[in-house]
Amino acid sequence: MENENIENLFDSLKGTFDIEEPREGHQQRFLEKLQTSQGVVSIQKKKKSWWKPLSIAASVVLLCAVGVGFFNSAPTRDEQVAEISQEVSQTQFYFASLIEEQVKELENESTPETRRIIDDTMIQLQRLETNYKTLEQDLLNGGNSKLILSAMITNFQTRIDLLANVLDQIENIKTLKNQNDANYTI
Fold it and tell me: b or e along 8-43 (b: 16 or more beta carbons within 10 Å of the residue's beta carbon)?
């Protein structure tokens, strides 16, 4: 019988119940009213949280900047040449390391007698390097690739031959100096 009374009560109140969600901050407002009614005064004020939206905005800006930098990074000239021909890239690495080794050897042989020839050689190497960069650009612009690749290899060989000739000349200068010094020693 008691269950029937409760069911009748709920049936009669059907549609009058408040089923809406409370507004945001409801619990905080309720606790403040409760503390006020009990005579407790809260001196804590609600803090404005400005750093959260700011940090989210900063994160979005940072991700956008990294994305733009990553996707818009242009490949270097060497990477572009390697895309055209892998053999050119390997040949360039081989010749460049050989030339670098010979240049170090040349600089180690520097003396007052050989300084002028070494300086002239370095100027010639710089000119050849400039010509090589021009050939690379021509290759990237779509020129006759076989002809340009041949010219690039010839450029490397010319640099190596130049360095070898200069090293031979330095050896000759050292030999002549040693002979002259031997003739003048007592």
Answer: eeeeeeeeeeeeeeeeeeeeeeeeeeeeeeeeeeee
Which is nearest to 125 in space by CA: 169, 81, 156, 147? 156
140 contacts 80 by C-beta, under 8 angstroms: yes
Low-confidence ranges of the chain (pLDDT < 50): none
Whose tokens are 């979005």? That residue is 60
Which pTM does this prediction carry?
0.53
